[in-house]
Every structure is written in C-alpha cells, then in structure tokens.
Amino acid sequence: MPELRYNIATKDWVIIATERAKRPDDFKREKKEDKEIPAYSSSCPFCPGNEERAGEPTSVIKDKDGNWLVKVVPNKFPALSCTGEPDKTNEGVYHSVNGVGVHEVIIESPLHNMTTAFYENSQVENIIKIYKQRYLELSKDPRIKHVIIFKNHGLSAGTSLEHPHSQLLATPIVSTQVANRESAAREYHDENGECVYCKMINEEIEAKERIIIENKNFIGIVPYAAFSPFHTWILPKKHKSSFGEISEEEIKDLASILKETLAKLYCGLGNPDYNYCIRTSPFTDSENNYFHWYLAVIPRITKPAGFEVGSGMFINASLPEQCAKFLREKAVI
Amino acid sequence: MPELRYNIATKDWVIIATERAKRPDDFKREKKEDKEIPAYSSSCPFCPGNEERAGEPTSVIKDKDGNWLVKVVPNKFPALSCTGEPDKTNEGVYHSVNGVGVHEVIIESPLHNMTTAFYENSQVENIIKIYKQRYLELSKDPRIKHVIIFKNHGLSAGTSLEHPHSQLLATPIVSTQVANRESAAREYHDENGECVYCKMINEEIEAKERIIIENKNFIGIVPYAAFSPFHTWILPKKHKSSFGEISEEEIKDLASILKETLAKLYCGLGNPDYNYCIRTSPFTDSENNYFHWYLAVIPRITKPAGFEVGSGMFINASLPEQCAKFLREKAVI
Fold first, then answer.
1. Do A99 and B3 touch (CB under 8 A)?
2. Minimal-distance CA residue of chain B relative to A280
3. Which of A 275-314 lie inside 8 A of B, CB atoms?
4. Using the beta-carbon criterion (under 8 Å), do A171 and B199 form an inter-chain contact?
5. A300: which DSSP letter?
C-alpha cells in the first residue's frame, strides 16, 4: 500500500509510491562518459590568472602565501541589480518591486576540476566561512530582506559551468514559500511551545532509522516525508533561527558532515547532479525561537512532471528509511 | 532594471530578469533529430489491438462504427492504490494517510504518433469530455478529496511513453499548495467582494498586451507574473470554481483554444516539451465564489535550480508581454 506522508515542518504532503518503489541501488547514475576535466582552463573566468574576467572580489580567503583559496565575485549576468531602491508599484492586480538585490558567485577552489566530495575539510570550512561573511555583510543593507545561498552541481541541477562554484541571491522581498514556512513554524511553536525542527531532531535521534550521519553539532537525515530520493536535511542540533549565527565550532562540524554526505552520494550514486541550499530566517525576523536554519541537499535524480506542477506535491518512488540506510552504510573510497 | 512581479492570485513572486532577458525566438528548441514515429507500434500497450495489455477501460468514447476514439484505463504502475480506506496514523511528528486514490491514463488517440497540436478540434473535445466524465464520477467517491488532471509531453516534461496520453490522479487529501491557493482566493474575496481571477481576466481584456488568444467563453494569457517563458493560463470567462461545471458549449471553446495554443507553441518554439494541468477546487469545497478553475500550460524550456528549490521563487528570463505577443502573432501552419 502506498503512503501519503506529511512533513509537519513544511506542511507538505508527499506520495511514497511503494508500488513503484525502487531499491536505492536502482537510482545509481548510468555510467556516462564523464569527460576528463583539466585542473586549469585558460578560457575559464574563475581559474587563477583570469582574475580580471571574474571581476573585483567582494570577499576573499587566502593561504599564507597570499594565493586565494575561496573568493566571492559579482555574477556577470545578475538576476537582480545592486544599484537603486526597491520602489513599489501597485496598479489593480499588478504589483511589482524594482529588481534590486545582490547576485554573487562563490568560487570554491582555484582548481577547475575539483568537486565538493573531494575537498579537504578545511576547504569546505573556508567556503562556509565566506558564506557567513557575505551573509553578515548583506544583513546590514536595509534594502535586503533575505538571502538564499545555493549550489547547482551538474547539468540537470541547472549549471553548465564546470569550475566549482556556488551562488547567493539577496532579495528585497521574502518569498512566499519562505514566509509560509516561517509562519508554519511559528504556528507550531504557538501551539506546542517548542520549535518543530528541534522536536523533529530529537525524534530522529531516538528513531535512528533516517539518520545518515551525525556529529557533535549537526545531524544529517533523510526526512520522514522526503519529497525525492536521497533528499537530505543537515540541521544544527542547537536551536538557531539564522545561518548567520553559526559558530566557529559549528562551521567545522557542518563542513565535515556536508563533505561526507556529498562523498557518500558521489560514491553511492555515481556523481549525481544535485542542488543544495541554506534555508534561513529572513533578515526582518532573524532571531526567533520557532524557525531553525538548515542546509538541504537535493540530488536531481527524478523529474517533476505535470502532477507536481499542478499540485505542488511530489511522488517519491523510494523509501526514506532505505535511502538513509544506504547512505549511512556507504563507505567513501 | 530587473523587476519582481507578484501574482496576486497565487501570492507568488517572480524575478523578471531583464539583464538576462532573451527574445522569444531565442527559446526555440534546437533542431534535434526528432525520430520518425510510426502511426502504430505493436509493442505499445495503448495502440489498437493491444487492448488487453492496456487493461479494462473505466470510460470510452467511440465513433459511430464502435471504434474507440479516447479511453481511460488504470495506470499499470499507480502512485496510489484504488482499494482500501484512507486511514490515518499520527505519532509525534510523523503523520501519514494510507495511499488510497485513483491513478488513470487517458489514451488520447488510437494513433501512436499524434500530438495535441495536430488533433482535430472534435478530438480535443472528446478528451475534455472524458476528463469531465471521470471528474464527475470520482467526485462521488467519499475517499477522494481532489483530482489533478495533467499531461506530460516529452522527456523534459517527465514522460518517456510516445503514445499521446494524459493522466489523472485522485488523492484522499488536498495538497498544501492547492489549499493555500484556495485560501488566498477566499481572502481576496473577503477583502474585495469579488473573485481575484475574474478581476484579473477583466484587467487583462482591458490591457490586451498579455492575451494570446480569446473566444466567447475562454481567454489564454501569459500571466503578468508568469514564472517561466511562455507559461500560459487558459481561463473560463464565466466564474466557475470547478472544472466539473464546464458546459458543452464551454468544452468546444476550451478545445479550440487549447489546440490552437499548443499548435502556436509547436510552430513557434519547435515542438517544446510541456506540461499542462487543470487547477480546480477540491471536492470538499467544489462550488464557491472565490476560486476560479483554469488550465495552465507550462513549456519546459528552462530548469529550476538551487535558487528555485531554496526559495520557491522563479527567475524568468523573458518578458511575459513579449512572449504573449510572439504567440498571439504566430501563425499555425
């Protein structure tokens, strides 16, 4: 019998389609001819030596010899413009805001052919550190209400650039989905006197069956109502509503879990395309006791189709418990 | 300057990214080697002669000689099971419902190589008639709360079956997105004393610039805050909250507009992959004065990436007004 599961934090239903269910191994990517990528490409604006084409960095982390390890540059084709004011217009049913915001690229490594699964832990720490720097810097801009930090890995995940990078997009409005999740979390807190994510973390630690990986400060799980195969949430164990509150010690622990999770996906599923994103409270409500920031990893293994578009629900042809077990037991080699 | 536009009906924001903007022509699909598809395939369960493999139809429309023109069969790999009761379980943060529901396939034509853009109008009428028959039949099942009728055309839209078909999935719950849209429409009605969709239709008829096509009973527009290029809404002009209320005359007009819109997409963009879906009120609230049913067509031209996953917002690199003009003026040949 298939099952409809409800995610009590996001209020989303998912169909766990057991009649169509596949074993975790069945999602392994067919061996494609992954072309050999060079460590340096003269045509790549993100490779060392091409700094002028990448643009003036807004943030850099360097090694002791002064070479950059991670840096942030403006996106050359920004979705939002960094100048101007977010003025509104409102005529009848037409409501708009000037597209003011910040769109940046985080160049994650000087090496053209690197991938997060193979970084040193210290490199992932640097990436998270620079995310935090930019987050805190942007939080001072009164025009900005929210920041989405995300990564697109591979063609199906929406990138065609080889050089390893992630992005941030700072918006002058809070998206409806983010606002809805905040208000769902607030409602749960009002009714139950606790953070729904803290509650979920405690229940997952007790149940054990959906845990992929855990350390002192973070836990990685496949959520009970995961909307797609191997969908993973990496949550800080301590309640913090905003990513900007991450401590030095937590950065180390997040780096270690993120790298390990991506390495398990790489080894277990054959370098699948994926997105990750950091879900955090808006700047307008950055410290609260109901929303709990986390990082979501979404392997792009299945395609949303007409049913997903028409209902906002997903059909997941895998069991979250089996996906978690598969990744938990997958050795990284 | 880019622009953030708000869809007052769905409450969704979209970034209209003018810095990245493309002309409508730029979205034309690269000439792929579309392989020659035969009119009949002996291995296809949906082709005439293979009726046993398709399963017992739940609904059929035949020609005067008794040959089927359109028929509905159970999905062989259903996401939900048609037997049992939608019993609930509720333990801590884990909340589920038995996956009871109906998952059917609408075989749209006996011809293996047909596509909606080239159907006779009468064939599209038959398809909509059979959608309505199934909708009304399923509305009598007390276990079912909502029905999504949808079509996946092409690989990027989530189908690999060549034979032209659409699907319906009847669920024992109302998805959160559908519930949110209902409540947004109710709220607008409470505050303004009118249906937000009726208001939008009137403003679009006045503005003219986002209309693709129009007849007595329907209008096809690219919404002001369309979330992707050529995203189209086909709305009945008369307020009706549920698809099941569509009249005979309206079926004729919807068939004509749907076929013409898909033919314009076919000719203008080179047979793009697309989904369409019917958005209608849940059975539990099927007649109301605030929600307005419609059919949405979503060409799958761009890929949602990490930003879309993390925010629920979309970046649209096209101007809705330009997309509407392009399709409005596109002759079907």
1. yes
2. B310
3. 275-279, 296, 298, 303-307, 309-313
4. no
5. -
Strands A12-16 and A59-62, how do they pair?
Answer: unpaired
- Name, in order, each residue with C-beta under 8 angstroms of B228's C-beta and a sequence gap of 6 or more: B298, B299, B301, B302, B314, B316
In chain B, what percentage of residues exceed pLDDT 70? 99
Measured CA to CA, the distance from residue B100 to residue B79 in angstroms comes to 9
> What does residue A186 show for φ and ψ, rounded to 5 degrees?
-65, -45
pLDDT score for A31: 63
CA A260/CA A258 separation, integer angstroms:
5
Q: Answer whether residue B2 shows pLDDT above 90.
A: yes
Q: Which of B8, B80, B307 faces A169 most closely, judged by CB atoms? A: B307
For B235, list phi and psi in degrees, rounded to 5. -115, 140
Residue with tokens 């993100």: A46
In whole angstroms, what is the distance from residue B198 CA to residue B206 CA?
Answer: 13
Q: Which residues pair with B90 in a beta bridge?
A: B95
Backbone φ and ψ for A255, nearest 5 degrees, come out as -60, -45
CA A23, chain centre distance (Å): 25
Q: Which of B254, B320, B333, B330 is nearest to B293 (CA)?
A: B254
pLDDT at B183 over 80: yes
- Find all residues with CB under 8 Å of B283, minimum gap 6, and list them: B139, B144, B145, B146, B147
Q: How far is CA A171 from CA A214, B15, B210, B217, in A?
A: 32, 10, 26, 39
Q: What domains lie within chain B, and their CATH numbers? A: 40-82+90-329 (3.30.428.10)
CB < 8 Å from A in window 138-167 of B: 146, 148-152, 156-159, 166-167
Q: How far apart are CA A105 and CA A44, in angstroms?
A: 14
- Tokens representing B66? 């008794």
Q: Which residues of chain A carry a pLDDT beneath 50?
A: none
What does the radius of gyration of chain B's CA atoms come to, in whole angstroms? 20
Which pLDDT band, with edges at 50, 70 and 90, does B20 fall under?
confident
Structure token digits, residue B67 = 């040959």
